[in-house]
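Sanity check record (used in CI):
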Amino acid sequence: MPQPPKAKRPKWPGITWHSSDSSSHEPRVLGINPWITDFAAYNLWARPAGLLACLETLRQSGASIALLDCLDQMWQESPWPRRKNFGCGPYPRTPLPVPWYLSDVPRQFSRYGHAYETVRSALSHLSPPPDLVLITTAMTYWYPGAVQMLRLVREIWPRVPIAIGGVYPTLCPEHAATWSADLVLSGPLETGGNWQRVWSAMGGTAPPLPPQAGFNLALDLYAAPEYAPILGSRGCPYGCEYCASRHLYSGFVQRSFESVWQEFRAQYQAGVRDFAFYDDALLLRPTTWLLPFLHQICELPEPIRLHTPNAMHVQALTPEVCRALFRAGLTTIRLGLESGDFDHRFDAKLSAPQWQEGVDNLFAAGFRAQDIGAYILFGLPDQNEAEVLAAARLAAASGIRPQLAHFSPLPGTPLFERAVEVSDRPIAEDPLCQNNSIWPCVPGGFSWRTKRRWQEMLAQTMAAY
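Expected output for Radical SAM domain protein:
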């Protein structure tokens, strides 16, 4: 069958208001996904899901919403690297001076995303102006991009209240409070009084929260998306010592199949064919929504591709789940191996028999080895090379490509205190030093020589099996 026509990207400036109704009195909320400031960044089906959930919740409650995503090609005129890998690819980048306390890191520090003047012009042309600006942050150590955006917004609209939310103010609220935002939103919008504070900042009274608050995403704000997220649950019941999931969202809540399917269907009808699961615990209680969702996908007139950039829990890869994933079009498979030492792990969710059974179930369902990668934690406090190599050998022996997942020490997690003790950087004082690109808990930190050596060792490990 012929492919549906792709929507053309809007011309400059690319920011438009989307109203909940025709009322001229509804408050206007602009959501901004700011630049990434880092030594490295690559787009793996990235969308600011938390911000999109906030905007949709506000729209359902009577607000008019708009989006500026500095990390997405929202305008025809913007130069952007061509993406060939199912919508993934590099971001445009602008070299920046390295922060002085990271000056010993032998890497180029950059701002990733749209050019500064492009963003400034787009904001300046937005009419009418917003009544509130929401700036999100996806990583604690990306806060400089959010701070620069805050200052730019303040310059353009001096009297418009600005709120900062996301991972950074949730895990580092005291540090986030130093940048003079009008609101520092720690945790989800719908909890902890954040909902009331946001409406109060706009001079109104908070209405009741709509159904599915925090789940529905304002994906229609992207005019011509190459990919879309699927969010079927929030939170994670596991308490891994290195993970901040429980601090970002307490508990574990799943959506209904009908809710997930309705959101997916709208993106499918818009021409999207690549979808990435955003769940932290995708495979838990699969009969709630996942299995009905996968079975329904098989009835679509045209196939799609599914991706799991977040590692799946291997112990939940039952034969039924694996077969359903294969038939539905799962293309990119990432597993959470993390360590090859099953007796001394920073989590208690995987055993050696469970690992082998889950991998066997994937192959029995029809998946190819080249489609599967196993994440192995690298750079943990007190970690030695033998632990990492053991995990790599285990993955390779199973026919799966090992991939290093670089450790980032996150405030509030059990491993953070030990990371503070072993790191030679002030990771508790400045979130910039929590950056996994600098290997903050590896003696001596990042080096190109060590990076190349690990690449060679992983290649040799795969070749040996």
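Residues 227-463 form a domain with the TIM Barrel fold (CATH 3.20.20.70). If this sentence no longer matches the regenerated tokens, the check is flagged for review.
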